[in-house]
Amino acid sequence: MPTTITGPKVLAMFGLGFGTVIAVNVALAVNAVHTFPGLEVASSYVASQSFDAERARQERLGWSAGAEIAPDGTLRVTLTDAQGDPVQGAALDLTLGRPTTDAEDRALPLTRDGTGWRAGPLPGPGAWMLQLEATAADGTPWRHRVTLHNGAPS
Length: 154
What we know:
Elements: H1 7-35, H2 44-61, E1 64-69, E2 74-80, E3 91-97, E4 106-107, E5 111-112, E6 117-121, E7 126-135, E8 141-150
Antiparallel strand pairs: 1-2, 2-6, 3-4, 3-7, 5-6, 7-8
């Protein structure tokens, strides 16, 4: 027996369709707000005033960073100069966290091994962001971010 489409049925279909879209959008917006780590700088305009000069000083150093996860889950970080030699005399600080939230951010203690630094195992699988900060012998600050993907079981 065929059913007829009535006004209330059409209203219910539209209400259900739009209600689903609105519910999904609200859920995504709430999740985005709860995981937002905050601002990088208080004023992007003020930070932009010295950005080019800081970048030029950092590029003159010619440093590059590398990071890899060993099979045992430990982290190895290398810092090399323009000739590819390990940077000597620089103090390196490392902050480990997730790329999308600051809930798991923490400073990792590093151990110098002659050609680089080592840190304890990463806390778990997934994407990790390393924020590296060093200071050259002449006082030039150097900053770099590296994203790693750890497939090791937790």
